[in-house]
Design brief:
By secondary structure, the protein is of the alpha/beta class. It is built from 14 helices and 16 strands. It is about 40% helix and about 25% strand.
Length: about 350
């Protein structure tokens, strides 16, 4: 049986960071994507074999999955690629992973669980900064508070840049309603509708609600029925929260979204190596139960792109080696909550 890993969307910024980490781990993946010029360039850069195909023809996907045991999808926005590639992976009995953070897509992927188990494959989305460290934190904290009924997760990027792929996915997110999980169900919630504030010792955090991937994953990892995720927002700019409805209206217009997307596509590829080295990420999580008790922890992690490159490479290898049970998994259930420890710079709270 083949033991070959494929990276789809291999011309992307984050994908190439992952490929570098795979090569450092002595794994040479097959590179793939739909644009021959870009994929051929990546193939020459990394001295890896390549295949060219789009996700619009399942028969072509299946033909190109021949000899592949595990596919890592890095081609976002994932609403356009994930389910098509998963369908083909099920037919070909190929493991599927990705680095997405799109809540609606993730929730739909959950429906593949039984079929994945029947086929004996692993389906494991979100193996990057979305949502490895926060999912592991949620799992670890839930073990300290088994009766928790709600979790609030705060995220703060310090000095970090954004790749064009992340910008494109952000435009997709801005064009649809925000999401939270309430009583086990994902419901619409306007981006910025809710706020989360923590002041403890010297640490301060103020965030606005966003539809981050933990709205999907934390529930399945911990069983906690109420999940909200918050992005850091300067308190002095809190009056701008009311613009979220306007932004949703603007980015739901396909012409406007396409214009912004084209600008981004022609812009900078992503943060430089120096920018990544100087960047860190803070994650704060608060669990509460119905008795009024709560526990809060916060950690500073390495840069999100560096974390994604390492976690995606390492988890993909674990899946490819048969170390993860079949079915639809979350990161913490697949590799354990201690997996995050290697990326921690310091514990803040």
């Amino acid at each position: 049986m083949s033991n070959q890993i494929m990276v789809y969307g291999a011309n992307g910024y984050t994908a190439q960071l992952i490929i570098k980490d795979l090569l450092k781990l002595n794994v040479k993946p097959v590179l793939a994507g739909r644009n021959k010029n870009y994929i051929e360039e990546a193939s020459n850069k990394f001295n890896c074999r390549y295949r060219i195909f789009s996700v619009d023809d399942e028969s072509k996907i299946l033909g190109n999955l021949s000899g592949i045991s595990t596919l890592l999808n890095c081609a976002g926005p994932f609403k356009y690629t994930a389910r098509k590639l998963i369908d083909a992976c099920l037919s070909a009995k190929v493991n599927y992973l990705d680095i997405e953070g799109e809540v609606d897509v993730l929730e739909s992927i959950r429906l593949y669980d039984e079929r994945a188990k029947e086929k004996g494959i692993v389906i494991l989305p979100s193996v990057g900064f979305d949502v490895v460290p926060s999912d592991c934190m949620a799992k670890k904290l839930s073990e300290k508070m088994p009766d928790a009924t709600s979790i609030q997760i705060g995220l703060k990027n310090e000095k970090g840049g954004i790749s064009r792929g992340t910008w494109l996915t952000t435009f997709e997110m801005l064009g649809v309603p925000g999401k939270i999980r309430k009583d086990g169900k994902i419901i619409d919630s306007i981006i910025g509708e809710k706020t989360f504030s923590i002041k403890q010792n010297e640490f301060k955090f103020y965030g606005i609600s966003i539809p981050w991937a933990d709205v999907y994953s934390a529930y399945y990892s911990t069983g906690i029925p109420n999940v909200e995720v918050y992005m850091y927002f300067p308190p002095a700019l809190s009056f701008l929260r009311g613009l979220s409805k306007l932004l949703q209206k603007i980015f739901s217009n396909q012409s406007i979204k396409k214009t912004f997307s084209n600008i981004v596509i022609r812009s900078k590829f992503g943060p430089s190596k120096k920018e990544r080295e100087n960047s860190t990420s803070i994650i704060i999580e608060k669990l509460s139960n119905d008795k009024g008790d709560s526990i809060t922890e916060a950690y500073r992690f390495i840069d999100g792109y560096c974390l994604t490159a390492s976690s995606a490479a390492n988890i993909t290898i674990k899946v490819n080696n048969g170390e993860v049970a079949s079915g639809v998994q979350t990161p913490s259930l697949a590799v354990g909550s201690d997996f995050m420890n290697q990326y921690i710079i310091e514990k803040i709270l």
